[in-house]
Specification:
This protein is mainly α. It has 2 helices and 2 strands. About 15% of the residues lie in helices and about 5% in strands.
């Protein structure tokens, strides 16, 4: 993970690191073992333009739940008052 960028920083301080396909072979190279080389591969600006933040059920908070419904967007209703 890395420090969150763009709109993701409002949700969490960390985000996944996305490696562009053009460096996959370098990343998977079995001889990649120099710290400086590894850091240079990770020193990229991740594009969050293809990501979207959506509200999901709080069922995601329990490891007992493991089904496709966990990633289905939910509607958030405005707070209701008595008056």
């Amino acid at each position: 993970t890395r420090e969150a960028e763009d709109f993701l920083a409002k949700i969490h301080s960390r985000m996944p690191t996305f490696l562009p396909s053009e460096i996959w072979d370098n990343w998977l190279d079995k001889d990649l073992n120099q710290v400086d080389e590894i850091r240079s591969l990770l020193d990229i600006k991740n594009s969050t333009s293809q990501l979207a933040a959506v509200a999901v059920s709080n069922r995601v908070n329990s490891p007992r739940n493991n089904d496709a419904q966990l990633i289905e967007p939910i509607e958030i209703l405005p707070d209701q008052t008595l008056f």
